[in-house]
Amino acid sequence: MKVLIIGCGIGGLRDEAARRGIPISYGKRLVSFDDTGDEVVASFEDGTSATGDLLIACDGVHSRTRSLLDPAAPGPRYSGLYSFGGIVRDAGVSGEPGVYNMVFGKRAFFGYTVSGSGDTWWFANLPRRLGDVPADWKPVLVEAFEGDANVSADIIRRSPVDLALPVYDLPPVPVWHKGRVLLTGDAAHATSPSSGQGASLAVEDAVVLARCLRESKGHREAFERFEAERRPRVERVVAYSRTISNSKAAGPVARVFRDLMLPMFLKKSASQESLAWMYRHQVSL
């Protein structure tokens, strides 16, 4: 069976494909596909095409395949946050490697960890109107954090601010598959990064889909089994992650209630079992 995979950001999977001699093409932009019933022909912006028995799309939250598969499919929804990240050498911050420090600031959210080499890795979520992009983000971020009694503003002052991305997720997508075409990963169920589960869900999809294809009589049965197994979990994660993102984008009044409730929420969520459904989920091979 020849399978066309549109989009894949998982380095380990890419490396394993290369090791097995599976061809990988870069810089291709899908324009259309034609499902003949016996095969799928994918056409690209550069005039080339590729043919396979199945087309598996993992082309992200802005998936072209999703809109082709179902023109009525919902598009990405903006979370109200821009996301930033950076690495600072010799930041003068102490911390245990592998432990992330998370801070709900007065105006934005900040997280950082200190690597084994001593570098400080940080990220920030800033509530912002979509498209309101300044010429230079750094002073905007420093101003957002300098009123907080922590190291966030100092870390940002020492860091280049090169990465600024609006954060999106997806509402429930009604159509995951049709004929020989299937959506997976962020193309089917993009979650905001607040839950830390985006890449994990994509890997889980790959494992479950491989099993369904192996154990089913044909692709239709495999796709149906895949959706039935995955949809409840991924939609629960997306909803949970959106709740967290909303708390990061809280306005002045909502922040007061959030900060009052946060100690109780953290005490409840600190239990190893409270979020076991998400962080300790296992899939069978």
UniProtKB/TrEMBL annotation:
Keywords: Monooxygenase, Oxidoreductase
The name this protein goes by in its record: FAD-dependent oxidoreductase
Domain FAD-binding: 13-239
Any one Pfam family match given in the protein's UniProt record, by short name: FAD_binding_3
Oxidoreductase keyword on record: yes
Native organism: Nonomuraea spiralis
Source superkingdom: Bacteria
SUPFAM superfamilies linked to this entry: FAD/NAD(P)-binding domain
